[in-house]
Specification:
Layout (H helix, E strand, L loop, with lengths): L1 H4 L5 E2 L2 H12 L9 E8 L13 E5 L2 H14 L2 E4 L8 H14 L3 E2 L4 H11 L3 H17 L9 H18 L6 H22 L12 H6 L19
Parallel strand pairs: 1-4, 4-5
Antiparallel strand pairs: 2-3
């Protein structure tokens, strides 16, 4: 795939032409670009022994496996997966649902075919205001827990406090492509804790040699959030 062939790749999406070509290559019986198909169904089990009685059917997504494979390839090569496109731009409700499905699978954005889809993509892929506020409160809490005024505490006690906060925050903020947010929290926590240790032990400089990143997890037991998502394709972006 392009993810492996092009080392300068930053984003990957099938695009309309890509899906058209793939459908033709697979001999798929559809001209729809993205989304479900009225003939691609699963049917509920019969009630009793009457297999001829009407049963509920559920339309399925022809492209779910394809998009999932693209996300996996992007994760493997460290680039960002983009959903798209959704061909029926007149059906905004279905478009939004497909964008939300892609978001939950790990896509970080969507290719739009029509101006009406731009607002939908922004609505789906922009972080919720409350999530941003929650992350800001988390940063403030980590800052407070590693204040120099608390140098009288033992390092293990400070790390225990931080771990409780990190676990609680991660349990709440766990859907969608969370790896980037987890790394941001990790990248803030370690320097703050290193600075606190230097102040506690009156270490000159920034303490990188004495307290490398590995020290915090291996010696103090600090949780590293991003490592919890390494094998979860949906969590990466």
């Amino acid at each position: 795939m392009a993810a492996a062939v092009l080392p300068r790749s930053k984003l990957l999406s099938y695009g309309k032409g890509g899906l058209d070509d793939l459908a033709a290559n697979r001999r798929m019986k559809t001209t729809r670009v993205g989304g479900g198909h009225p003939g691609y169904l699963v049917r509920a089990d019969p009630e009793g022994d009457d297999i001829e009685a009407p049963r509920t059917t559920y339309q399925q997504d022809l492209w779910h496996y394809t998009i999932a494979r693209m996300v996996d390839a992007c994760v493997m090569h460290g680039i960002k997966p983009m959903y798209g496109p959704f061909g029926d731009f007149a059906d905004e409700a279905a478009c939004e649902q497909q964008f939300r499905n892609a978001y939950l699978m790990g896509c970080v954005g969507a290719w739009t075919l029509h101006p009406s889809q731009v607002a939908i993509a922004k609505r789906v892929f922009t972080p919720d205001v409350e999530e941003v506020k929650l992350a800001k409160r988390m940063i403030d809490a980590i800052h407070a827990d590693t204040d120099r005024k608390l140098c009288w505490l033992e390092a293990t006690e400070v790390v225990q406090r931080l771990n409780l906060r990190l676990e609680g925050w991660a349990n709440y903020f766990c859907l969608g492509p969370v790896s980037k947010a987890y790394k941001a929290i990790d990248n803030y926590t370690i320097p703050r804790l290193r600075r606190w240790l230097c102040a506690k032990h009156k270490v000159a400089g920034r303490g990188y040699t004495l307290y490398p990143d590995e020290y915090f997890q291996e010696e103090l037991g600090l949780i590293r959030l991003w490592k919890s998502t390494q094998n979860l394709p949906w969590a990466k972006s």
